[in-house]
Design brief:
This protein has helices at 2-11, 39-68, 76-80, 84-104, 108-121, 126-139, 144-152, 155-158, 163-175, 179-191, 200-216, 220-229, 236-248, 252-266, 270-282, 286-299, 305-316, 320-334, 338-351, 354-373, 382-395, 399-412, 414-417, 421-434, 438-450, 456-467, 472-485, 490-503, 509-517, 524-534, 545-562, and strands at 14-18, 23-27, 33-37. The chain is mostly helical.
Length: 567
């Protein structure tokens, strides 16, 4: 009875649509009104409106990118379906194309901004990263650190396909003197899962750079381990590195014999000829050096290096007039070649030829001015040429001239010296040493040793420079500082022992020689000298001298029996 009453009342209810049919007013017989939403219709309207708004916004964005920004590669489907990655990639490629176009028209600020946006949108673009890195460092910002960050962030995209990109990054780390970062990156792609993405030749590139970094730091055992582990000596670059390792360890004859065998294996190679000519020249074998210089010239007549190597031979034979003529020819022919001029500048420094060094310094300034005027990258490091000129004064023993030149440089071009302050301090210390100013010498050496960015290899190089001026005490202090900075540095340890033997210092002699004997291949010539000197009365108070002499003798006896010339 109740159900019949309910049906009857519902039937008498009146329904009036409102809001364009999205709701309705239900009026009951008793006059009560209720508003009810029609959810199906309302939901459909919301969907239709959402789609319309979505397509309108997508169309607006599409037209803005396509017409407003000139982005011709934009696809309506990418915007409509929120293909964010595809859209960003295409947008990044567009900005990179615009950057290339701006570069062609020499609009550098616009090109920089385009490359920056392009790399942000398409981080996998290696070309964009290289161009942006060039802007940060080469063109006008001179920010090597930021340039390296840009390149490093592209390594994950490069290690599986682009050896040239990886090599460019590692080369900049070397040029910027960041050995610790170089080692860190190489170890990352050799010893961690990140290395699985590397192509075999790129992995070999990391191994070569890691071995070279270890050798540069005097960590000879670590360098040899990398050479052996990755069989680097089966390649030309690895062979050159292995010979250098022998040379740096003081095994000069072994180094030359190793390269002679490499010559048989790799044939007439310019690099092998060049290294052999330098090795024999440093050993005083002028005839052999001359032989390989001639071979190098015949193998590559357009290379300036053999002609510069020949200058050393001519100087040793006293043919100064011929040297002057050949220098004129070299400058006339290779004045715009930064590599050739740098090698020639090294020759001027070695000979103490201040006039030639100043001439090359002026040539570098002139070439940079021409490059800037033409809107090209600067390829000459003028500050480096200036500092080499100071070194030429020192090689000439003109200490006053060196000090005056350095002081003028510090006053006139302080921005040049800012990134080279360590080298400036070392040269100024040596100049003051020559002028018998021990107070200033000590001050500059203290500043050099205590500087946060001073590396062991820098201290070793400075110490060797002091040795050429018979400043053994100062050199010993620098070798000691280098060894304290890096106890794994075998070069610093060996040089420290040599200096202590020359000065008669016995305080740490036993400890240092025992540490040297723990390395894989200590220099036999040094051990011979140490055995002879320690047996004299000068070192009678060396702690545990008898055990030390026995250990040296035992190593020498064993080494002379098993000595071989390859790894």
């Amino acid at each position: 009875m109740a159900d019949e009453t309910s049906s009857t009342s519902r039937a008498k209810e009146t329904v009036t649509p409102i809001w364009h049919g999205l709701a309705a007013v239900h009026k009951q017989p008793n006059g009560v009104k209720r508003v009810r939403l029609r959810w199906m219709r309302l939901g459909g309207l919301v969907v239709i409106a959402g789609v319309a708004i979505w397509m309108t916004v997508a169309l607006g964005l599409y037209l803005w990118f396509k017409l407003g920004r000139g982005f011709q590669n934009e696809q309506f489907a990418d915007v409509l379906f929120f293909r964010y990655e595809e859209h960003n990639h295409k947008l990044g490629e567009y900005f990179l194309q615009m950057g290339d176009l701006h570069m062609q028209n020499h609009r550098l600020p616009e090109a920089f901004n385009a490359y920056r946006l392009g790399v942000m949108k398409a981080p996998e673009s290696l070309h964009g990263r290289e161009m942006l890195a060039d802007f940060y460092y080469i063109y006008y910002r001179n920010d090597l650190a930021r340039s390296l960050v840009v390149l490093e962030e592209g390594l994950p995209y490069a290690v599986g396909k682009d050896r040239e990109y990886v090599n460019n990054y590692l080369l900049r780390l070397q040029q910027g003197h960041f050995p610790d970062k170089l080692i860190e990156v190489c170890q990352k792609y050799l010893d961690t899962p990140a290395g699985k993405a590397c192509l075999p030749d790129i992995q070999m590139l990391f191994a070569l750079n890691l071995a070279q970094a270890y050798i540069d730091q005097g960590r000879f055992d670590d360098g040899e381990t990398i050479i052996d582990r990755y069989k680097l000596d089966q390649t030309l670059d690895g062979t050159m590195l292995a010979s250098r390792l022998l040379w740096e360890r003081g095994r000069l004859r072994e180094a030359t014999a190793y390269l002679e065998k490499a010559h048989d294996r790799f044939g007439n190679n310019d690099y092998i000829f060049g290294l052999l000519s330098r090795y024999y020249r440093d050993m005083g074998d002028i005839d052999k050096s001359y032989e390989y210089i001639i071979k190098r010239q015949l193998n590559n007549p357009s290379n300036a290096m053999p002609s510069i190597e020949m200058l050393y031979i001519l100087m040793k034979t006293g043919e100064r007039a011929t040297v002057a003529q050949k220098v004129d020819v070299l400058i006339d022919q290779f004045h715009s070649d930064p590599s050739a001029m740098s090698y020639l500048d090294d020759f001027a420094m070695d000979q103490g030829d201040v006039d030639l060094s100043r001439r090359l310094y002026q040539n570098a300034q002139r070439e940079v001015a021409l490059q800037v005027k033409a809107g090209r990258p600067e390829t000459f490091d003028v500050a480096s040429y200036a500092l080499v000129t100071a070194q030429a004064y020192l090689a000439k023993l003109d200490y006053l001239g060196a000090r005056n030149f350095l002081d003028d440089l510090d006053q006139e071009k302080p921005h040049w010296l800012q990134p080279n302050r360590i080298q400036f301090d070392s040269l100024r210390a040596l100049a003051d040493y020559g002028l018998n100013r021990p107070d200033l010498t000590t001050m500059y050496l203290d500043r050099l040793i205590k500087a946060d960015n001073t590396r062991p290899d820098t201290l070793i190089a400075v110490a060797n420079r002091f040795l050429t001026h018979n400043a053994t005490d100062e050199a010993q202090r620098l070798f000691q500082a280098a060894y304290q900075l890096d106890p794994h540095n075998q070069a610093a340890l060996a040089q420290l022992i040599i200096a202590d033997l020359a000065l008669g210092n016995s305080e740490h002699m036993s400890e240092n020689i025992f540490n040297l004997l723990k390395t894989r291949r200590p220099p036999l010539e040094l051990l011979y000298d140490a055995y002879r000197e320690l047996g004299s009365d000068r070192f009678i108070f060396v702690p545990d001298r008898e055990s030390l002499l026995a250990a040296i003798d035992g190593y020498i006896q064993n080494a002379t029996k098993t000595r071989r010339t390859d790894f």
